Amino acid sequence: MLITGIKSKPVYAPLSADVTGRHHLMLGVGPGASPLLRVLAEMRDAAPLALEATRVLLVPVDGAAGGPAAQFEHTGIAALSRFEDAGTLLEAFAASLEESVMGTRLYVAGPESFIGRAMQIALRFDLNKDEIRAEECGTLARRVRCVHCRATTEDVRTNIVRCAGCERWLLVRDHYSRRLAAYMGVMVDAESPGELPPVREIYL
Q1: Which of 60, 75, 126, 128 could join 69 via S-S bond, C-beta 3.0 to 4.6 A?
Q2: In this predicted model, what pLDDT tens digit does every residue of 76-117 receive, in sequence order?
Q3: DSSP assignment letter at 14
Q4: Taking Cα atoms as reference points, which of 109, 107, 57, 65 lies closest to residue 82?
Q5: Is 192 within the bounds of a domain?
Q6: 55 in a domain, yes or no?
């Protein structure tokens, strides 16, 4: 059965502006644009000059004119960079941290899988946890790490998934590893090969 009640699952508070920062770096995927716009509105009211030290990296929901992505162009921020997918955004994020300075505040908004990968990069560059804020929104699809072959399967929406590496059928546990930014997957039919419980789509 799916193991529940494990305390390893992160809990994300709604984003809020930290105007004590010298620089502000914002990452958003899809519906993550809305929380970032909310934070920018807080900055505009509390410390307008902070907007001039803010850069946004964004994967828009779509390219529709007048959508959330277009709204960033009228906020007074220093720079807006758009990307086709989360992978290329995170590459640009890592590159930007090579040039980051003390006093940088990081804001991340999007699905948990995206937040986890961004956190991995941020901690690799020694950002302190009190300099990082995150808000979960969008799909609940999970990154699943196979405990047998250590491969990671992306965008898992079902309770049972075939490993992208060893092709074992894995039970998607609720245990989350912050270090790996993934949920653990264990072989579900180890005792009775080929006998699988019903596969259900539960992480929508």
Answers
A1: 60
A2: 999 999 999 999 999 999 999 988 878 999 999 999 999 999
A3: P
A4: 57
A5: no
A6: yes
